[in-house]
Design goal:
CATH architecture of the largest domain: 3-Layer(aba) Sandwich
Helix content: 40-55%
Distance between the termini: 67 Å
Protein name: Solute-binding protein family 3/N-terminal domain-containing protein
Keywords: Signal
CATH topology of the largest domain: D-Maltodextrin-Binding Protein, domain 2
Number of strands: 12
Organism: Catenovulum maritimum
CATH class of the largest domain: Alpha Beta
Structural class: alpha/beta
CATH superfamily of the largest domain: Periplasmic binding protein-like II
């Protein structure tokens, strides 16, 4: 007959050996969440860390609402769901509040910014050759966007709009010179909003500033964060992460034609305190 302490040890060992890690994925996406790139990157990372950490169960944040990123940040900080994780733009402030997993989820694609213009602005931008000429432009951004703060810090004037479609109308009607967004977002946005009269997209320049996107979780979820980081690194080394990236990003980035643009590089003071080790995983889309 087993002694009681030994029985408890064996029972605990057996339970821990077969217990699955419960993960709650959250996003502000409108589409089918399981079709989203970031969901599939997280799943890939968890798959590529099973050998070291064991099995897992990947759940989606409960509810039928589409939460804002402000709400996701608050819920994650409050540790509302078990091992809650979501993707966000990195900033010093956010890294203080949450545990950022230092790996660029989109391999840096969001750092390359191209934009929408009016016909008149398009002609003006074609002749830009220096950063001083470029910073004389007025940029259009959404209210409260991190990009607006970054652009202002680099010398640009920024005008803000509240609604996403309104930003495209602002660009078409010369309420600003350029409405920049990620190079991987241009194609989809053009297909959606090209019906707007006078709207066009610039084909001559690209603004670059580091804009890494990390997965974030609660600061207490240290082991979980280590698992995701290990899985991302394993998937990167195996080539599986790049295959997934190409599936979602390649055609979109090619549409932006970065290799034919003048690329102007700027700083991002919003990540001045962030360890730069993530940069080893940044892809240069202009070389694809």
């Amino acid at each position: 007959m087993l002694k009681f302490p030994l029985f408890l040890f064996l029972l605990t060992f057996s339970f821990n050996s077969f217990a699955k890690l419960s993960v709650t994925f959250a996003t502000g996406a409108l589409a089918n969440i399981k079709d989203e790139y970031e969901y599939n990157v997280l799943k890939l990372a968890l798959d590529h860390s099973i050998e070291q950490y064991g099995e897992y169960e990947l759940n989606i944040r409960p509810g039928n609402d589409v939460p804002s990123y402000t709400r996701l940040r608050v819920e994650t900080e409050n540790n509302r769901y078990e091992n809650m994780v979501y993707k966000d733009s990195v900033s010093n402030e956010l890294m203080d509040k949450l545990l950022g997993i230092p790996f660029p989820v989109d391999l840096g694609a969001a750092s390359y910014r191209v934009g929408f213009v009016s016909p008149e602005s398009s002609q003006k931008i074609k002749h830009i050759k220096t950063k001083n000429q470029l910073t004389s432009l007025t940029m259009i951004q959404g209210r409260g966007w991190l990009d607006g703060e970054i652009l202002e810090s680099q010398g640009f004037k920024v005008v803000e709009g509240r609604y996403i479609e309104g930003l495209f109308h602002m660009a078409a009607n010369m309420r600003g010179d350029l409405f920049p967004l990620g190079a991987h977002e241009l194609k989809t946005a053009w297909e959606q909003f090209k019906h707007i009269e006078y709207l066009d997209y610039d084909k001559s320049i690209c603004i670059y500033y580091p804009l890494p996107k990390f997965f974030f979780t609660h600061k207490d979820n240290v082991e979980f964060a280590e698992r995701v980081k290990t899985g991302l690194e394993n998937a990167y080394q195996s080539g599986d992460l790049f295959k997934l990236w190409k599936k979602y990003f390649y055609d979109k980035v090619m549409f932006s034609n970065l290799s034919q643009r003048k690329i102007f590089k700027f700083e991002n003071p919003k990540i001045s305190a962030v360890d730069k080790s993530y940069e080893q995983y940044i892809l240069d889309p202009s070389t694809l």
